[in-house]
Design goal:
The complex is a heterodimer. Chain A is of the alpha+beta class. Chain A has helices at about 10-20, 25-35, 85-105, 120, 165-175, 245, 270-275, 280-285, 290, 310-315, 315-325, 330-335, 370-380; strands at about 75-80, 110-115, 150, 155-160, 180, 185, 195, 200-205, 260-265, 345, 350, 360-365, 395-405. Chain B is built from three helices and 28 strands. Classes of the chains: A alpha+beta, B mainly beta. The interface of A and B includes residues 146, 269, 283, 288 and 395 of A. The complex binds protoporphyrin IX containing FE. Protoporphyrin IX containing FE binds near residues 233, 374, 375 and 396 of chain A. Chain A: This is Tat pathway signal protein.
Chain lengths: ~425, ~450
């Protein structure tokens, strides 16, 4: 891999580019770029950390309105098992992950991460997953897509505000760094997992980051400077996100875990920013009433901790389809709320993997079925509205889908399909 | 790139292309300015955008645009049940609907973000019936050069133009000359299909074509833009469909009549019925399959069976209009193939005046009243039929002679427009009809 050209990029952009490249050379370039930063260290007491791998929210910072601020830099490391899972392998994985926890504080400034497993991983066991876990193979979810599927075994999601940290953590796990933030790397994942290089995915989220990519032909200059996401608006308002409790599997051996869905998509930003105007963008992203009543502001700053989708605005989706000929993305997706509560915890981030703008849409939910239901509401085939006016669907092109189980921390290292072996679904 | 003060003579001299080939649908005569018979070779190799003069204060109706765009047609490609004809022109403005609550702000002119590139278009049809499919379930276009993807995937807009009828299109920026490969991915059709089209278009299909983007292309498409005589600009009327043998050799071409109301004869203008395109050997078209590409004209009013509903106010056009769209509404006899059991089928077919281009992606509903009481109130479902083409329909159990039928346009056609269509089909008041006695 060749390193990005330092002279042609802003510092922030250079660091982002290094994350995308990865590996030891990128890391050393990154370290020399950020040598003065002091990364908070983690804990020697693993039990002090939450029992759920996905318990990030309490550790992450919040903005002025109380919305969780996702870490800026993300890497999804795709992993393939070298040998069949064994107790020895389990121990190594657990030790390796505990090293990360010792090295970095569980926070934006430090590192948060999850390790999730695909249906393909669990296929190798005689037992099937307990009934309390809904983890089907990924499949196309709309008529318009022909995605590839995540068929490797696992994905490690690393996230930090420091690009150096995500790079270093990955390097440490794969024998490319001896020391992580002052902690010796005694064990890594090497020997248990190998990386699926062409499936490594990276990304970023945060105000101003998307606008740093206008050198790409797919990212127009007209993207708002402050936008945290490529499509120009804030997202992930507190009130439109599921709580971690809500997405947590309650019962069974994987109680305390969750399911994760990752879909990767290309984005068409030139039409979005050059042909549609702000009024249209607000209409298609939120709802026609958001546009008429100017509820959103330039990039969503006029919204505080909610996306302003009242029950009435959600219920009027069908009506807007008929009388306005257009519906909003958030409006129609919110039709899938259950008793007024959003079922998904979205942790999506922007990407320029492949040198063109995209989104890795990552969401957590209690079961994959919940994602499928929300995605159907978001697709809105039932609305009878012209494709170009059906929210943002004519701007997004799904290329890849994967489903994962994120076990509770206690089972994060190579879990068997049925850890307690006493579930009714077991066929022994 | 706008040029309001454009001097037609200068332009003609520069391109040397306009030689009395213009023909207008309906009522306008041809442009007989043929002071320049040169060939179309354009030697000036600057990438100069053709002028795009606009009409000042056009009517809120279909009007004659300032010019006819030229284009290159590529070989039609078959993909699954679909047949697709790609066409290329130079990037130019068009209008898209903004989703506003109504009125003028509802549509906005959209200028190309850069002139380097093409206006890419395609027509999609069913080769068995010749029916052009005027709806989009989510097309995806990917452009490649030397195996590398150029730009992000895109969904082309659905559009209507007078010369081309319904088509898909967009301005696609291209930074370099070269050979481009285009992949068009077509999802299954989500619109209701009936008759010969029932059960078709249920599979996704991908069509691939190639084109050269170079100076010769540019010269070709720019060199053949035809500007109309300024006196016609903005008058009510429309350009002749381009596949319709309308390049000056049209026998029944009528003289322009300044009376705005005298258009009715032209809705019945024959010729469009069977999707045949006449022949034209004017030597301008350096492509082969031009004649195979259907123009999206709906059948003429008399091709529909059943009882034609009558407008309450006698209109001065043969079909009632709303927002200048002509509405054909007919009640099929009971037990037709479009209903279950003995119901009657109400078929409403809105179309552009003059060229009978289908108006897709509207939301329509019908209310039936008898002696002041509402007896039925129903949404009309967008449908594409192998024989009657695009229409909006509903099955009615109880409808009688003398009943009042109101067709409400809940939202206008959500399709982008080329010049001459952007001021029509926006504000659309209800259409009041009755079921004729006996
Ligand atoms: C480029 C792609 C996408 C962008 C830019 C985007 C952006 C947004 C924005 C701005 C909001 C409103 C703000 C908020 O509620 O936090 C929103 C809401 C939402 N989006 Fe997306 N989104 C994208 C893709 C998706 C996908 C693939 C799904 C999958 C189902 C999805 C599901 C949702 C849901 C469930 C909501 C919240 C609805 C509620 O309030 O209940 N989004 N999105």
């Amino acid at each position: 891999m060749t390193l990005p050209d330092r002279s042609s990029l802003s510092r922030r952009d250079y660091l982002r580019a290094l994350v995308a490249v990865g590996g030891a050379t990128a890391l050393s370039a990154c370290v020399s770029e950020s040598d003065d930063v002091d990364v908070p260290t983690g804990t020697d007491d693993p039990d002090s950390l939450p029992a759920r791998q996905h318990a990030w929210n309490d550790a992450l910072s919040r903005d002025d309105h109380g919305n969780v601020q996702p870490p800026e830099h993300h890497v999804l490391v795709a992993l393939s098992l070298i040998d069949e899972p064994s107790d020895d392998g389990r121990e190594r994985v657990e030790d390796a992950l505990e090293i990360l926890e010792r090295a970095y504080e569980w926070s934006n400034e430090g590192l948060v991460f999850t390790l999730g497993y695909t249906p393909a991983y669990f296929d190798r066991f005689d037992d099937s997953l307990p009934e309390t876990v809904d983890l089907p193979e990924p499949e196309p979810l709309t008529d318009r897509e022909d995605p590839t599927f995540d068929e490797f075994d696992a994905v490690l999601h690393l996230a930090s505000d420091r690009s150096q940290v995500v790079l270093e953590a990955e390097a440490g796990l794969f024998g490319e760094a001896d020391e992580l933030n002052g902690v010796d790397v005694e064990t890594g994942l090497t020997g248990v997992f190998e990386r699926v290089e062409d499936q490594r995915r990276t990304g970023f989220v945060g105000e101003g980051l998307p606008a740093e990519h206008t050198e790409l032909s797919g990212v127009p200059d007209s993207i708002p400077d402050e936008a945290p996401f490529f499509m120009g608006f804030r997202s992930g308002f507190d009130r439109s996100q599921a709580t971690e409790d809500r997405v947590t599997i309650e019962d069974g051996p994987f109680g305390g875990g969750t399911t994760q869905q990752i879909s990767s998509m290309d984005l068409q930003l030139r039409i979005w920013f050059e042909q549609d105007n702000h009024y249209q963008r607000v209409t298609k992203m939120f709802s026609p009433e958001h546009a008429d009543e100017e509820l959103v502001g330039d990039i969503g700053e006029a919204l505080t901790s909610t996306n302003a989708l009242t029950d009435e605005r959600i219920e009027s989706t069908q009506d807007d389809a008929r009388t306005r000929g257009v519906v909003g993305h958030a409006q129609k997706a919110a039709r899938a709320r259950v008793d007024g509560e959003p079922p998904l915890l979205r942790r999506d981030f922007n990407t320029v993997d492949g040198e063109s703008p995209g989104l890795h849409f990552l969401s957590l939910q209690e079961d994959i079925e919940a994602f499928v239901r929300v995605r159907e509401a978001m697709t809105g085939d039932d609305l009878g509205v012209a494709n170009a006016n059906n929210g943002i669907r004519s701007y997004i092109f799904v290329t890849q889908r994967g489903n994962y189980l994120i076990p509770p921390r206690s089972l994060r290292a190579l879990p068997p399909a049925n850890p307690t072996g006493d579930d009714s679904s077991e066929e022994t | 790139m706008q040029d309001h003060d454009f001097d037609r003579r200068t332009f003609v001299r520069r391109t040397g292309a306009v030689t009395g080939l213009l023909a207008l649908a309906g009522c306008l005569g041809t442009d007989d300015d043929d002071d320049n018979d040169d060939t179309t070779e354009e030697t000036d190799d600057d990438l100069e955008a053709p002028a795009f003069p606009e009409v000042e204060d056009p009517p809120d109706a279909v009007y004659v645009p300032t010019h006819r765009e030229s284009m290159r047609m590529l070989e039609p490609v078959e993909a699954g049940d679909y047949t697709i004809a790609p066409m290329l022109s130079y990037p130019h403005p068009f209008w898209i609907l903004t989703g506003g609550a109504g009125g003028e702000g509802e549509i906005e002119r959209n200028d190309p973000e850069q002139m380097d590139g093409v206006h890419m278009m395609f027509t999609l049809w069913d080769d068995d019936t010749g029916v052009v499919l005027p709806v989009d379930s989510g097309n995806a276009i990917r452009v490649f050069r030397d195996g590398e993807q150029v730009g992000s995937p895109r969904s082309a807009w659905t559009m209507i133009s007078q010369a081309m009828g319904f088509h898909f299109g967009d301005n696609v920026p291209l930074d370099d000359h070269g050979t481009y490969t285009v992949e068009v991915e077509l999802p299954p059709l989500s619109t209701r299909t009936t008759g010969q089209l029932e059960g078709r278009f249920t599979e996704r299909a991908t069509a691939t074509f190639e084109f050269d983007y170079d100076e010769a292309f540019w010269d070709h498409v720019v060199g053949e833009v035809e500007y109309l005589d300024e006196e016609y600009w903005g008058q009510r009327g429309a350009l002749e469909p381009m596949d319709h043998g309308g390049h000056g050799d049209h026998g029944d071409q009528q003289e322009h009549d300044d009376d705005d109301h005298d258009h009715d004869g032209h809705d019945d203008h024959d010729g469009h019925d069977d999707h045949d395109h006449g022949d034209h050997d004017d030597g301008r078209d350096d492509h082969h399959n031009h004649d195979d590409i259907p123009y999206s004209a709906l059948p003429a009013a008399d091709a529909y069976p059943g009882t034609l509903l009558e407008p309450i106010d006698d209109p001065d056009t043969d079909l009632p209009r709303s927002g200048d769209a002509a509405f054909l509404a007919t009640l099929f006899d009971s037990g037709s193939r479009l209903v279950e059991g003995d119901d009657r089928y109400l078929l409403v077919s809105p179309r552009t005046p003059y060229n009978r281009v289908p108006l897709a992606d509207m939301a329509l509903s019908a209310t039936i009243e008898r002696d002041g009481e509402t007896v039925a109130d129903t949404e009309l479902v967008q449908t594409i039929d192998g024989e009657y083409d695009l229409h909006y329909g509903a099955s009615l159990g109880d409808v009688q002679p003398g009943d009042a039928v109101t067709i409400t346009i809940e939202s206008p056609p959500q399709v982008a427009r080329h010049q001459g269509y952007e001021t029509a089909f926006l504000e659309m008041p209800p259409i009041e009809l009755t079921v004729p006695e006996g």
